[in-house]
Amino acid sequence: MERDEIKERVYKIITQVLKIDAEQVQEDQGFTTDLGAESVQSIELMAGFEEEFDIEMDEDDALAVQTVGGAIDFIGTYVD
Amino acid sequence: MAKTYELTDVEEPNLLEEQFDYSLPPKIKFVDPIYEEIDGELIKFDPQEALQRDLVITDTTFRDGQQARPPYTVEQQVKLFDMMAKLSGPNGVIRQTEFFLYTKNDRQALDDCRALGHTYPEVTSWIRADKGDFRLVKEAGVKETGMLTPSSDYHIFYKLKKNRRQAFNDYLEVVEAAWEAGIRPRCHLEDVTRADIEGYVMPFVSELVKRSEQVDPDLHVKIRLCDTMGFGVPSPGAALPRSIPKLIHRMVNDCGVPQDCLEWHGHNDFHKVHINGATAWLYGCNAVNTTLFGFGERTGNPPLEGAIIEYISLYGDLCGIEPMMIQEMADYMRSIGVDIAPNFPFVGRDFNTTRAGIHAGGLRSDERIYNIFDTTALFNRPPRVAITDKTGVDGVALWVNNFLELKGDEKLSKIKVHKIARWVTDQYEVHARMSAITDEELEEQVKTHLSEHYTVYLEKVSRKAS
């Protein structure tokens, strides 16, 4: 899967879970520091990504990902 | 200038298992003796020597423990006594328990308990310092009885309306009457931590020791040091009459009371009840008197189960004790309407329940991080998490895994429980809830959001039941 496609779908999940517009999301932003994701929302993001890409991520590794760009690359390792 | 300490980096964690063997309550390890200055002389107390003595627990659940509540029925006393014997084990760690003798109910309970045929706890009685009461003791066929011999001037002058000489002589007369009846007297020195130790207590105790030499060793008088108002202090350097180290030293070394004839009876008015009992053991007193869950007059007595855990911690061994009985006794007490505070150590509903999300996270990684010992193996009480707004997703995952009895790789990740975690969060953030989430509510959420796992769980429960 191309990175752009992953990015597009990751952005979709982020906007749904965090209830923000896609224009507010940038790759270098941190989920908690910049986008204001709270504890439960961080888990909901992980769950959303798993469902969207039909993958099962390692929880500890997934939660270690801090930024939007990091998530795109991390998910890329699964969909490849 | 402060010394510089080099970090010792290690490949594997050092869990200090010599003291924190998770399978037992953590061992209390002594590496040095204890020193106490008494009359300008440095006195050495050796904890290793203490462990060589026959340390025991005595019980007063049915005497002092009943003074604080409506009386137990005969059946309840027999049930508790039977469980106490199982808890105690074959070595008689709970060596004795005492009964009132004044009502028909009291005497029936004593007879029925004795009829169970347990070696331990031995049955003793409790009477006032009244010669006429020995008739009751003899009729009950009890070999040892406690008797009230108040020792402070508060009691002698204001309660008994006597002077010291009268009290001294009257008590000795009752002790002699016990011996004449072939009964071992146990003098309860009431209010000893507020008494004139040198002016009254030591002359009285010395006289008891002297007179004991004239009778059979099985009848030698026992001394119970009653910290009636909880004034006792465990700290080295404290003054008499409140200093437990000095008081015990006076009794053993200056009055010649054998250590196996010395007992500590405490009260919890200043939150020192357990440590005072444990201190008495270490400083030379062989017996610590307790009540189940600490129920006793006013603020209560040393909790029996606390002394049991202390005992195991001191010896680093179960010593024949059956710790699971502690939970069975707690369940039984609840079943007869006795309230046990949720945070009460070892038996309260929440004694190993965490509410903090960060603690729940720790428990999820390795329960040893936030559990005192293997409470599942010893008490059948796995560490739990109570779900509130502070518990977080970690807590929800821990609760769900415990509830579904999932272990190892079967455990569900936080990601898998996110819908339940969302429901919990919304309870507080959207619905402004103020109370903890109940187990029943969470079970309903599991049923809704993890239906496949819930079905497997029900099948498991059903298999166990059948």
Short description:
Chain A has 80 residues and is an all-alpha fold. Chain A is built from four helices and no strands. Chain B is of the alpha/beta class.
Characterization of this structure:
The complex is a heterodimer of chains A (80) and B (466). With 80 residues, chain A is mostly helical. Chain A has a single domain (3-79), classed as ACP-like (Non-ribosomal Peptide Synthetase Peptidyl Carrier Protein, Chain A, Orthogonal Bundle), CATH 1.10.1200. Chain A is built from 4 helices and no strands. Chain A has helices spanning 3-18, 39-53, 59-64, 68-79. The termini of chain A are close together. Chain B has 466 residues and is of the alpha/beta class. Chain B has an 8-stranded parallel β-barrel with strand order 3-4-5-6-7-8-9-10, surrounded by 6 helices. A two-stranded antiparallel ribbon of chain B has the order 1-2. In chain B, helix 9 runs parallel beside helix 10 and helix 17 (439-449) crosses helix 18 (451-465). The longest helix of chain B is centred in the middle third of the chain and has 17 residues, at 164-180. Helices cover 42% and strands 12% of the residues of chain B. Chain B folds into 2 domains: 34-335, Aldolase class I (TIM Barrel); 353-465, no CATH class.
SS summary, helix count of chain B: 18
> What CATH first level of the largest domain in chain B would be assigned?
Alpha Beta
CATH superfamily of the largest domain in chain B: Aldolase class I
Largest β-sheet summary of chain B: 8 strands, parallel, barrel
Number of domain units of chain B: 2
CATH architecture of the largest domain in chain B: Alpha-Beta Barrel
Q: Could you give the topology of this structure?
A:
The complex is a heterodimer of chains A (80) and B (466).
Chain A: H1 3-18, H2 39-53, H3 59-64, H4 68-79
Chain B: E1 34-38, E2 41-45, H1 47-52, E3 56-59, H2 64-67, H3 74-88, E4 94-99, H4 104-115, E5 122-127, H5 134-140, E6 144-148, H6 153-159, H7 164-180, E7 184-189, H8 197-212, E8 222-226, H9 244-254, E9 262-265, H10 273-283, E10 287-290, H11 304-315, H12 324-335, E11 353-354, H13 357-365, H14 375-379, E12 384-385, H15 392-403, H16 418-429, H17 439-449, H18 451-465
Parallel strand pairs in B: 3-4, 3-10, 4-5, 5-6, 6-7, 7-8, 8-9, 9-10, 11-12
Antiparallel strand pairs in B: 1-2
